[in-house]
Specification:
mainly alpha; 8 helices; globular; 61% helix
Length: 215
């Protein structure tokens, strides 16, 4: 799942004590920021295996520091501490931590069994990537339903909202329908990190034009 990860960020951003939308969007993808950075550094690893799931070729065979539940909670605690340091708002810090943990929970729905509790078996994953007629509509409903809720509650200007929605749709289309390769190189992590960063920047623009949250 890609843009579906942002649904918790859009929902949490409507809370009047939430951190910014950009912070929450970074939070929901923080462990993938970590994973792809670690992949560039040779600390965690992935392969591209044709047919490993019906939806994508990712074989995420080595990611104990980011995609174990324990690792995710450590990232969440660190992110919450950083948010608290800058905002001094406990609710903002808790929402930031929840955004990070939501990534692992959403991954649990779609991944084949490759997630762990603490970096070793049992391997967990409900495998919705093997049911694309279920997973793809679910992802779109999650992402754009939550974005519509955010828009209704905070009323950002139409242009930045439309650009954010359009780039989300473009990123997901490339993820689903773009060219595939079995060659693992720096291009895949750099592309992913760039996409996450662009979406976070668009979130800054979108939030800067919004009304105050309703509650």
């Amino acid at each position: 799942m890609f843009i579906g990860h942002y649904a918790p960020a859009f929902l949490a951003a409507t809370h009047r004590k939430a951190p910014t939308l950009a912070v929450l969007m970074i939070g929901t993808q923080l462990i993938d920021f970590g994973f792809f950075t670690f992949a560039l550094m040779g600390i965690e690893h992935f392969r591209l295996v044709p047919g490993i799931t019906a939806s994508n070729w990712l074989d995420l065979y080595d990611m104990p520091y980011t995609h174990s539940l324990l690792g995710t909670c450590v990232w969440a605690a660190g992110f919450a501490a950083l948010v608290w340091l800058f905002t001094r708002r406990p609710v903002a810090a808790l929402l930031a931590a929840a955004a990070v943990v939501s990534h692992w929970l959403v991954d649990l729905l779609v991944h084949r069994p490759d997630l762990t509790l603490a970096g070793s078996p049992p391997l967990l994953g409900l495998g919705l990537w093997n049911l694309p007629l279920v997973e793809k509509p679910l992802e779109l409903v999650m992402a754009f339903g939550a974005l519509a809720f955010y828009a209704a509650r905070t009323r950002p200007k139409a242009l930045p909202l439309a650009v954010l929605a359009g780039v989300l749709a473009l990123c997901q289309a490339i993820d689903w329908f773009g060219p595939r390769t079995t060659v693992v190189d720096a291009g895949q992590p750099i592309t992913a990190l760039t996409a996450y960063s662009v979406l976070a920047a668009l979130a800054v623009w979108t939030q800067s034009t919004r009304a105050k949250p309703a509650s």
